[in-house]
Amino acid sequence: MTKPDKRDEIVRAALELIAEYGFHGAPMAMIADRAGVGAGTIYRYFENKDVLITELYREVEEKLYAVLLEGYATEKPFRERFLHLGTALLRYFIQNPLHFRYLEQFHNSPYGVAFRRDKILGKKGECDVFRELFEDGISQQVMKDLPLPVLFALAFGPLLTVARDHILSFISLDDALIARIVDACWDGIRR
Amino acid sequence: MTKPDKRDEIVRAALELIAEYGFHGAPMAMIADRAGVGAGTIYRYFENKDVLITELYREVEEKLYAVLLEGYATEKPFRERFLHLGTALLRYFIQNPLHFRYLEQFHNSPYGVAFRRDKILGKKGECDVFRELFEDGISQQVMKDLPLPVLFALAFGPLLTVARDHILSFISLDDALIARIVDACWDGIRR
Amino acid sequence: MTKPDKRDEIVRAALELIAEYGFHGAPMAMIADRAGVGAGTIYRYFENKDVLITELYREVEEKLYAVLLEGYATEKPFRERFLHLGTALLRYFIQNPLHFRYLEQFHNSPYGVAFRRDKILGKKGECDVFRELFEDGISQQVMKDLPLPVLFALAFGPLLTVARDHILSFISLDDALIARIVDACWDGIRR
Amino acid sequence: MTKPDKRDEIVRAALELIAEYGFHGAPMAMIADRAGVGAGTIYRYFENKDVLITELYREVEEKLYAVLLEGYATEKPFRERFLHLGTALLRYFIQNPLHFRYLEQFHNSPYGVAFRRDKILGKKGECDVFRELFEDGISQQVMKDLPLPVLFALAFGPLLTVARDHILSFISLDDALIARIVDACWDGIRR
DNA sequence: TATGAATGAGTCTTCATTCAT
DNA sequence: CATGAATGAAGACTCATTCAT
């Protein structure tokens, strides 16, 4: 019942435009226009463009994590948990290309570095699922004994790459292919 | 004694600044400044900023390919060839972080998409080594039977990710770790 | 009490500066300055400098035609109508030297050629008075049987020249002299 | 036998380019290029662009006057002398459109005003033919008793206008039409 | 609270002119 | 004498941000 208030419209417009044109290709005036609000209005909800960008990132990430955790069962065996996460991740990106593009833009920008640092160094709680899972995997000796960031890279690097290729129409992913890809990632990290 | 002529200085400055601040964070005036030349001088060597960016990309890519092909022997067994390329790639990026950052910036920009498309669709000749190698691998049934872009993703996605993590000091790679990482990538693509 | 809104100020400033210094001698920043607005403000009203120039031309031309048609009576004899138009034209330019200079600048520029062509070829409706009058004059055999553009030249060429000379203070026109000049033009075109 | 030395080439190139593109559309580098000389070379012959432009004007004017005076006989009757000058003027412009365009560009620019002033106020000797002729005409009471500049305007204003129209292909002048036009100008100034 | 007109610092690019070779 | 690479001031235009209404 939350009437799609102005803030939501702004966030939606920013997501669409930045995903399509990048940070520098999406001026505040254009975002305001697309959101159907005045240019000044954005500044009632976000201190400045940087804050809008960062905040939008948080929201996108939050939605992503929510979906990843849907049906995620800590008690299931390690491999199954990994496949769940990998598959869910790839599917989410394919179904939400704007979110994927936005995250990509974000990570590949000055904004992204600070976030990555925090995440790797363990400040954020949200991606703990991944950390827990992987630390679990290491200690159970199911996974290769490599530094956590390396395992992340082996597991998710390929997924992000194929997601991008799919969104850019270089390849076309279906459920079967997704499963095989995640399986291949598993081969990369398992002992 | 090779006098570092202006063009070289411009290219060097552009590489440094764009790698660090991105395309939009590196104004022509700043590049000129860092290169120790007048603002107008850049335009004697490059028609405009876009041309500078694209040209610089070509040069970086060329150097990279040259290094990759050093000691690359077509007659060696498939696995060995893959390990050679993967290792060389990762090493190159670690030793030339500016090049890595620049390529990343480039690929993650309007400029990059056209290039990616050409490469995927097979126009460029230089990355044929990769294509040949992988098509070889598929036909010899050493590699998983997956679309070429997917195999590329499995093989190089993790390498790019760890390269970035290393450059951002999130991890520290040495020769031993590099070898293990490339090995893990091999696990991802091999049958 | 009509608040001189920004657009008006910009138009006025542009007219003054371009009339005095020409298109290339009147930078946008200078126009903005003279108009008492910020540099960017001009672009809220005119897409770019070309549009400003063209639009300003239209406004000047419109005012001129309005004055020319004041008291112009189609039913009066040909000679009288010609004298009315010639006199009004010359008076208008003398009273609005900026307009005269601006029109001159405009016609003597890439912008102007297209306009002239359209006018000669008969696209524009506003100068139909002239065309109608002259075609009338030809068919009534009051005027020399010469091509229309030639008659225009004979009739208005001298008027524009003396207008310029007056504005540059090379001569000083009063009503008596104006009448004699227009009369002389009449001698040039009449049979 | 004067080998077409660099200076001549520069003057020729400047004439062509400025006639076609205007002062601001013809950069020094472009002129140098067209002249087949180095950019710096122009400055050996002309102190700066303004001097080049002014000097070029002088040369064009000089050639024009030379042609006008060819066959001009002071002893002939007034009307004949006028027709000679008018016809020669119009013919010259039609045969040398670049010269015409250049003179037009020049007069319609800051450069031109000073020159006009000098000429009207009688400093220059070259156009004395015109002055003498017209003063003659006035004192003989063949011409209307109007200020000299006005007579100039009546006599030559139309000629310049039709010359431009011809060069822009709005009309097409032949010898017969030229004669009739000059005759019409005569009607404008004669008593 | 919402607006959107106004701002001006910052961007890319051009071009007349200089000067070392 | 001739060159043309180098310069940097100047110009058109953009856009994040502010503030009067």
How many domains in all of chain A? 2
Q: In terms of quaternary structure, what is this?
A: homotetramer
Tally the beta strands of chain A. Answer: 0
Q: What is the CATH third-level topology name of the largest domain in chain A?
A: Tetracycline Repressor, domain 2
Q: Give helix and strand order of chain A, one letter per element, not per position.
A: HHHHHHHHHH
Sheet of most strands of chain A:
none
Using the 3D structure, state the CATH architecture of the largest domain in chain A.
Answer: Orthogonal Bundle
CATH class of the largest domain in chain A: Mainly Alpha
How much of the sequence lies in strands of chain A comes to: under 5%
Our count of helices of chain A gives 10
**What spatial form of chain A do the alpha-carbon principal axes imply?**
elongated
Q: Which homologous superfamily in CATH is the superfamily of the largest domain in chain A?
A: Tetracycline Repressor, domain 2
Mean pLDDT of chain A equals 91
Q: Please bin the fraction of helical residues of chain A.
A: over 70%
Unreliable parts of chain A:
none
State the end-to-end CA separation of chain A. Answer: 50 Å
**CA-atom Rg of chain A in angstroms:** 18 Å
* Class of secondary structure makeup of chain A: mainly alpha
Measured by residues with Cβ under 8 Å of the partner chain's Cβ, the largest interface is: A-B, 41 and 41 residues
Which key features would you list for this structure?
homotetramer, 191 residues, mainly alpha, Arc Repressor Mutant, subunit A, Tetracycline Repressor, domain 2, 10 helices, elongated, DNA-binding, Transcriptional regulator, TetR family (chains A, B, C, D), HTH-type_TetR-like_transc_reg (chains A, B, C, D), DNA-binding (chains A, B, C, D), transcription cis-regulatory region binding (chains A, B, C, D)
